[in-house]
Specification:
The complex is a heterodimer of chains A (369) and B (141).
Chain A (H helix, E strand, L loop, with lengths): L1 E9 L2 E6 L5 E5 L6 H13 L5 H8 L30 E7 L3 E9 L3 H6 L19 H11 L1 E9 L2 E10 L2 E5 L9 E4 L7 H13 L4 H8 L7 E7 L2 E7 L6 E2 H4 L1 H14 L5 E4 L11 H14 L3 E5 L3 H12 L6 E9 L2 E7 L1 H10 L5
Parallel strand pairs in A: 3-14, 3-15, 9-13, 13-14
Antiparallel strand pairs in A: 1-2, 1-4, 4-5, 5-6, 6-7, 7-8, 10-11, 11-12, 15-16
Helix pairs in contact in A: 5-8, 6-8, 6-9, 8-9, 9-10
Chain B lengths: L8 E4 L3 H14 L4 E4 L7 H9 L9 E7 L4 H14 L17 E7 L8 H8 L5 H8 L1
Parallel strand pairs in B: 1-2, 1-3, 3-4
Classes of the chains: A alpha+beta (369), B alpha/beta (141).
């Protein structure tokens, strides 16, 4: 579980430190202040060794196509990750985590000839492009190599040990070299604009059944649908889907019971399939009526504790914040924090509310978003 | 509707009645850029100030006033405000009406007077003590 996290030169952040992280963290703030970017930074850090996640976070924002243009000075898909698109800087992500201790990642675009030479073994050259004894002129060497490939380096540091992995664009496409090991713990990112396919929910439910934890979903959904007695995966029309028994004499697909049920099911199934890991949810209130938000938060808290999962979410909704505060105030433990991102003098900072401060702000009606 | 910080000068008062009084006073005096905030209830002042200083826009606040009724003990009233300010790392004046600090500059006002027990209502009554209508009021009260 992350206790603190630092970001430098990433997206809109020149420098950001967020501390007092809890089991469930809700990130608020006005538009364009970096709520989604913070989740993306955490996602990259969770991935630990995999620079290809840099493309994944762009896909979460709907930027899915990558046009590779070599031989010209064009933007690469990762340029937008760098603060103010300045690829001469290094992105630094560092986190204190109870599982992995202190880990830091550095992402940088390789531009120097000596750096590119180190990854030359991984680059696929055209017939007449392999680096020969070019010339002793260093500038010539930079130009020739850069035209053949673009390289993003991810340097991983932990306990004094350093390893590097590279995302390479060249004539053969995009790939990561060397093949990165699996991340130290699982992480899922639920993007605001992406709805989890029903078949994927069904698969995750099946995984919970395999380990005998399927009742976690039943219990969570019963909070908003007390009639629910049983859940089952049914393959209909070739597609598996989670169905529920609410006493109608037949099973009912979850989405038919309502958007809230389907959304809560996706959240619970994702958390339940990320034991000891991190779930990142952008705009958690999407699809949820404000009246069920306290119940949703209670369910999220219980499942997150059960599977030892840490949750980071964003919201624009005051109702969502108040509901979370109320739900966690009434739960066995207030393992929840509200963090607001705000811009002050061209930098963005995180303001964290503990239980007492958030209670005071809500009681007095002070703005917290 | 949430209370947003909209002015660079804040006046923290105890409740709605104090808010109405000071808003009227500010308007009467033609003062600008002052926002009253009814969050200074004496039981929760420290906690509420803590929420105020983390509110969006507080970093833009230039000056902060805290108004508090003396009730039975003006010294104790001032001390409690002083302690609350200190607890949330705001400049804490050593005596009423003696502003200290920068961004925000902080001052404390104890009502009806620095060394007199009572409250805002006493100050209001004192202001109209010569008014003929007070004879009627006095009879009713």
């Amino acid at each position: 579980m992350y206790k603190s996290f630092e970001v430098r030169n990433f997206r809109c952040f020149w420098e950001l430190t967020i501390a007092e992280l809890e089991r469930v963290n809700l990130v608020a703030g006005v538009n364009n202040v970096g709520k989604t970017a913070l989740l993306e930074a955490l996602f990259l850090h969770c991935g630990a060794y995999n620079p290809a996640l840099a493309l994944r976070v762009n896909a979460f924002r709907g930027i899915e196509t990558v046009k590779i243009e070599l031989g010209r000075w064009v933007e690469t898909p990762w340029d937008s990750l760098f603060h103010q698109f300045d690829i001469t800087k290094t992105i630094e992500l560092a986190g204190e985590n109870t599982i992995t201790g202190h880990r830091s990642l550095r992402l940088r675009v390789l531009r120097e000839p000596s750096e590119l030479a180190r990854v030359a073994q991984f680059i696929n050259y055209g017939p007449d492009e392999a680096p020969k004894a070019l010339s002793s002129d260093e500038s010539q060497k930079v130009l020739d190599t850069s035209e053949m490939a673009k390289v993003l380096q991810l340097e991983y540091q932990k306990n004094g040990r350093r390893d590097s992995y590279y995302m390479i664009f060249d004539r053969k496409g995009v790939r990561t070299e060397p093949i990165p090991p699996p991340p130290p713990f699982p992480a899922f990112f639920l993007a605001a604009r992406v709805r989890i396919p029903l078949a994927e929910d069904a698969e995750r439910f099946g995984k919970l059944e395999i380990i005998g934890q399927q009742d976690a979903l039943l219990k969570a959904l019963q909070v908003i649908e007390p009639r629910l007695r049983r859940l089952a995966v049914v393959v209909a029309g070739g597609a598996p889907m989670v169905h529920g028994d609410i006493g109608l004499g037949r099973l009912v697909p979850l989405p038919v019971m309502g958007e809230g049920m389907a959304r809560l099911a996706s959240l619970v199934l994702t958390i339940g399939n990320t034991p000891n890991g991190v779930v990142l949810v952008d705009e958690i209130e999407n699809g949820l009526h404000h009246s069920i938000l306290p119940k949703v938060w209670r369910a999220i808290g219980e499942v997150a504790r059960q599977f030892n999962t840490q949750v980071f979410t964003t919201t624009h909704s005051l109702e969502c914040i108040v509901a979370a505060h109320r739900a966690f105030s009434e739960s066995e433990r207030y393992d929840f924090r509200l963090h607001r991102l705000e811009r002050v003098n061209e930098t963005i900072r995180a303001v964290t509310y503990d239980q007492e401060t958030l209670e005071a702000a809500i009681e007095t009606g002070l703005e917290v978003r | 509707m949430a209370i947003e910080i909209e002015q660079p000068n804040l006046l923290v008062v105890e409740g709605r009645e104090e808010e109405l009084f000071f808003e009227a006073l500010i308007e009467h005096l033609g003062l600008q850029n002052i926002q009253t905030m009814p969050i200074g209830g004496k039981e929760q002042l420290r906690r509420n100030l803590k929420a105020l200083v983390v509110s969006p826009g507080f970093s833009e606040v230039i000056s902060l006033g805290v108004v508090r009724d003396a009730n039975t003990d003006p010294g104790a009233a001032f001390q409690s405000v002083h302690d609350a300010l200190q607890a949330v790392n705001l400049p804490a004046p050593e005596r009423p009406l003696a502003p200290v600090g920068e961004r925000p500059r902080v001052a404390v006002l104890i009502l009806p007077e620095v060394s007199m027990p009572g409250m805002l209502e006493d100050l209001c009554l004192k202001a109209v003590v010569q008014d003929p209508a007070m004879l009627c009021c006095g009879a009713v009260l």
